[in-house]
Amino acid sequence: MAVADRIVITGVGLTSPNGNSLPEFRKNLLDGVSGVSSMETRFMGKVHAGICDFDEQRHQSKKERRRGTRAGAISIFCANEAVISAGLDLEKLDRARVGTFVGITEHGTVETENEIDAIRQYDYDTKFWSHHHNPRTVANNPAGEVTVNMKLPGPHYTIGAACAAGNAGLIQGVQMLRLAEVDVALAGGVSEAIHSFGIFASFASQDALAQHSDPTKACRPFDKARDGIVVSEGGCLYVLERLDDAKKRGATIIAEVAGYAMNSDANDPVLPDPVRIAECIMLAIERAGIEPGDVNIVSTHATATEMGDVQETAALRQVFGDFPNVHVNNTKSFIGHAMGAAGALELAGNLGSFDDGVVHATINLDDQDPRCEVRNLVANQPREIGKVNYILNNSFGMLGINSAVIVRPFDG
Q1: Domains and CATH numbers, the chain
Q2: Is 301 considered catalytic here?
């Protein structure tokens, strides 16, 4: 199968803190609706978080949910919704040719913390430790739960790529299609991060948890008053197909994957390197066969940490300079940082621009940090820009993992 095979998106299934379908998610982004609220977490009390509210039993039974995980429930919901969105009839497919590739930041900490919290009440007697613990915590769990739920005997695995995992899952799906290992890929990323005390505690110990009297204003990328991350959960899985296969079955094509790249900073565990980020973006642009000025929307990774935002915008200035048609936005300002799901959700939130020509805003940007200066940063109100030809989606993670995905509208 030639590497030049064109890969298209034909379905999207998602749950986010401000929407459980692509149309609802897009509408809330354009309407400026934040999904961030507050919740209680053990040992820490109230924290700001992006919490998803979807029907866990829409595609699985109560018993199946009880045996599984929150990340698995999110994955099952997104995978089934993506298949419905794509109009796929699994009964007419060779299920062994459907692959499931789910990006994650971490997995298993939630279940381990819960079991330890429970067993300590019984003097650590192991008979009170769940026999479901091992299948719940193995690294392939979220993707594996999808295959069990949907009876898909094709290849599955999770991709541990820190907060670049949403992009990484999608990229893996593209590659497996081009290698002819699968005919359909369910690909993207998920996160159950808000259910882990350890994640909140670690960010708190770094003074990196956002604080604000109004949770909807807590996530403030690029703003002088930004003070850290809002931890969120969520998921977004795409149905990916080779173009010829999608056309043959008369599928509605949402977008085409034009280019992608991943690289590593090979430098600092947490501080992004703008030089390596710029190299990753440029590699994706080169693979798409375009120039930097051809990109119309740059969906930023910016998490509202002080230096993370500074380093990313430095890379953007290096790549895009003063190109007048390049517009920049951020989705985390609406939903917080959905970790392994972030890249996949942020790309999804921008796909509607191909139809309406509108760039959704970055909200909570009242006083832009001059160190984060970039041309055409869309702040607080959506901006109509007309025809959108290319969207570039940035997603980076700890240990210096960088990713960029470029999509375009299907042109026939």
Answers
A1: 7-248 (3.40.47.10), 261-408 (3.40.47.10)
A2: yes
